[in-house]
Amino acid sequence: MVNYPNGKKSQWAAAAASAGKRxxxxxxxxxxxxxxxxxxxxxVIHKKPTxxxxxxxxxxQRSAAKITEAYFKLPSTxxxxxxxxGKYIDFEAKECAxxxxxxxxxxxxxxxxxxxxxxxxxxxAFLIVRFSEYDEMYFIPAVKVIDFYNTADxxxxxxxxxxENGYLIPSSYLKPxxxxxxxxxxxxxxxxxxxx
Length: 196
Description:
Order of helices and strands: HHEEEEEEHEEHEHEH
Number of strands: 10
Strand order of the largest sheet: 1-4-5-7-8-10
Largest sheet: 6 strands, mixed
Distance between the termini: 40 Å
Helix content: 25-40%
Strand content: 25-35%
């Protein structure tokens, strides 16, 4: 555990220490990366809470409430949003266990509509897809996924397509999913394309 000299624990260090080994799930890796970005004042990007309607609560003890029945109020949009370098960021993250393709059933029509909508208003929108069999993470600009989704005559995206249309996301101990490196290259460096 890494602590500040005054004994206070850093948020990202606590997350790194509790994260364990590198093979944890994608969401935990992104959350850990986002804590690093936040702790260093690089970006403010958070996981969106899923809107839930609580229907029934049991109180087995006076001090402990237990939710026994609930349902999703609305379909969720995407997993993450926030701001980086003055631009709104919005993205969905998916972990795929298949070797040959990414099934479209993993992304829902309302998420495609949401990504299209935020793109129309100038957001940087994308998907992060981790192929767990290959330990590879791809950054895919939303416009490319939306185009494939709307024009494909198949129910999945071939694995090969990700290598041709996506960008491998670098990984390190402190930033297991360092997607902002790709954002910088695509949208902020000279020659970057903010419309992509």
